[in-house]
Amino acid sequence: FPRTGAWRTPNTRQIAEYMEDKCYHKAYWAPKDRVITRELQQCWDADGTMCSTSLIDPQAALDIPLLLQPSTYSWSPANMMNCYVFDTPADGANPSEFFNDPMSFAAGFRAPTMSQAKYSSQKTYLMETHWLQNLTTGECGANWGDSSATYHVAAGDGNDSTWSYDGCYPHYFNASWRSMPVASMCDGSVTGVSAEVAEKHDYVVAGQRGSTGDTAQYNGLWHRGTPSGANGFFIECRSDWAQWSGHVLTTGGMCEGRDLLAED
Predict the structure, then answer these.
(1) Are 66 and 196 found together in one domain?
(2) Euclidean distance between CA atoms 220 and 205, whole angstroms
(3) For residue 257, is it left (φ>0), alpha (ψ between -120 and 50) or beta?
(4) Are 96 and 44 in the same domain?
(5) Are 72 and 29 in contact (CB under 8 A)?
(6) What is the pTM of this model?
(7) Does 156 score more than 90 pLDDT?
């Protein structure tokens, strides 16, 4: 599925070994992530290490086209790749000329070390993926059909081309300016990242670089040069006028990237 991948699954077996060897340990899901936790209850009742999905068993407890149900929390993809992938555009340059496909060069997937994070207190590391804090609308996202990646549009049970839960997929963290996902930062601190504040900071940086005239040419805190362009991470499916894709598409990657500016 486009716009998803290993960054969604901090509950993989390699890490779950430290969580009672359970990929479905309850700690991987926030209590407010109710669309998902309702589906997982039968897995927790079984108290097993794994929970089968419909991708391998049509009668499985979880009707999702994946081998593993992703956690509430997700890594920052920008931290998982070479910092050159989300290279910072030069002032006045086209951002698309500064995004480098990690498949196009040998060290594309060589992640930096934590010590390379220049702005460790301002760069997210692990964050809530769905809109859980300050939710002011229904649990289910209503605009998935507006995306070119329409796999969250409900299409009935047992459909391996779609990903929803009984016809519902929750809003992502950037669906509204009211959203404030809880995040662990690269310096180990934990904070709520206000989508409203993060968007303002993005605008401030874009303004300093003289690139606020055209949304597609913004050179702010998140990268507009990826194949998703100004839509970033499902911005086209938002519930209001929010315009933020930090955490996922941080300009500069872990090495030089920031999802927030420092404030006094």
Answers:
(1) no
(2) 5
(3) beta
(4) no
(5) yes
(6) 0.95
(7) no
